[in-house]
Amino acid sequence: MKLTKETIIGMVLGSALTLSLTAGINYVSAIGATKQIEANFNNIKVNVEGKKLDLSDAKGNKLEPFIVQGTTYLPVRAIAEGIGKSVEWDMKTNTININHRKQTNDLNYIAAETVKNQGLEQQIIKALKMDDSEAKETRYYYNYIDLNGDGIKEVFVQLVGPYTSGTGGDIGLIFQQKNNGFHLVQQFSLIRNPIIISNEKTNGWNNMILEVSGGGITAQRVELKFNGTKYPNPSDGIELKKNTKVKGTGIIKNDIAADWETGKALYLK
């Protein structure tokens, strides 16, 4: 099934009392009563904004949606964290709280450029060795921002599509502008927008802060520091403590889901 964020949040809330349903055998309701049920497992898959969501618990064990009396039930925490929400269980009141992640930041956000850049498109296609059919199905978002303080803006690119996206995010690229062209600096796997360019620097390059989630990873914010040659992938980033104050610029501040539905995004071909 294909779901938007809004639809899936509603399903998460609607299935809030199914947290303790296990293996289709026993159901413990919020009032403590135990009921015997029959659950149908039918290899149900969940797509969020066109991307498959791999569902797993905090220990990485695979979770699977199931059907009880015609109603499909989804694992609350795995779904919520997969779409970047925080989940807390209040044992005293038997309440699941699903919220936007709270951040105390001093940030300026900017949306991606809206004008197609043929030179950049060509270098993206070349870097990823795409054929025409792959390029036609790949959307790209980009911003100009000076990452190393040399006065020449780098180009940060996020690629969205069946060939560049997975449950944990999308491919990201950094290009430098050289000799009236674009030189590939680095490729990232599994990035999520917006990408925060921190005012803090390491080895002359601005630190980056991204959220990682999906693919069995508990949703968290991580910091990427330049090691003199490149940045680490988000999966290897340093986890930020909760409520860490961040100053900088958030790039590619776009609603990718809405763009996908309305067809407003830029395509490589």
UniProtKB/TrEMBL annotation:
SUPFAM superfamilies referenced in this protein's UniProt entry, alphabetically: Copper amine oxidase, domain N
Top-level taxon: Bacteria
Pfam families in the record: Cu_amine_oxidN1
InterPro entries named in the record: Cu_amine_oxidase-like_N, Mao_N_sf
Domain Copper amine oxidase-like N-terminal per the UniProt entry, residue ranges: 63-115
Protein's name according to its UniProt entry: Copper amine oxidase-like N-terminal domain-containing protein
Species assigned in the record: Paenibacillus antarcticus
